[in-house]
Amino acid sequence: MAVPPADDVTEGRLLLAEYDRIKEEQKTRIGFRDNLLYFTLAAITAVAAITVESGKAHLLLAVPVISLVLGWTYLVNDEKISTIGCYIRDRLGPRLAELTAARDPVFAWETYHRDDANRTTRKRLQAAVDLFTYLALPMICVTAFWCSRATHPLLVAVSLAQTLALAVLGWQFLRYTER
Asked: What is the DSSP string of 107-161?
């Protein structure tokens, strides 16, 4: 990419370049976050299948580990996606509107799509899907382990620690869910 002469660099161009870059980051993060959900479900299914095939219930304790790592990564990406949107709405758009003396909001899509009457319902349903995937499914696996004959005191202690960690993750999901 050619660098424009210094006289061609204006605050407005810099703001538009910043907008392009952070929208690209947001788009990348959205794709990554959404794929994490599918990958998590595939990994949980694989562990469940291996557990059933082998009859070794302690393998189910891999599911909470998978869910904690991928769930935290999902949550961090989701938070950054929301933060980027907030930055565009609250900082970048108003600054560019001020520079151009625009009468209408700049980057209006950033607020327009949030005014959908069904948005709250969709956000709640997404939170339910997230909690089911990253909290309920691993807890089902932990419970199945507890109900098996293969419980060993050390593994029970590990499963209790996992349960606590999953509760923290669930709390973080609820805390960061946009209302």
From this structure: TTHHHHGGG-TTHHHHHHHHHHHHHIIIIIHHHHHHHHHHHSTT--HHHHHHHHH
Determine what percent of the chain falls in helix, strand and coil, rounding each to the nearest 5: 85, 0, 15
Q: Which residues contact 78 (CB under 8 A, 6 or more apart)?
A: 33, 176
Task: Tell me which residue of 164, 26, 139 sits closest to 84, measured CA to CA.
Answer: 26
Q: What is the pLDDT of residues 24-75, one digit of tens each?
A: 999 999 999 999 999 999 999 999 999 999 999 999 999 999 999 999 999 9
In which residue are the tokens 């109900």 written?
Answer: 147
- Give 152-165 pLDDT, tens digit per residue: 999 999 999 999 99
Can you tell me whether residue 102 is helix, strand or coil? coil
Mean pLDDT of 109-138: 90
3-state SS assignment for residue 105: coil
Structure tokens at 28: 């990348």
Q: Specify the pLDDT at position 119.
A: 85
CB 80 within 8 A of CB 63: no
Tokens 């948005």 correspond to 119
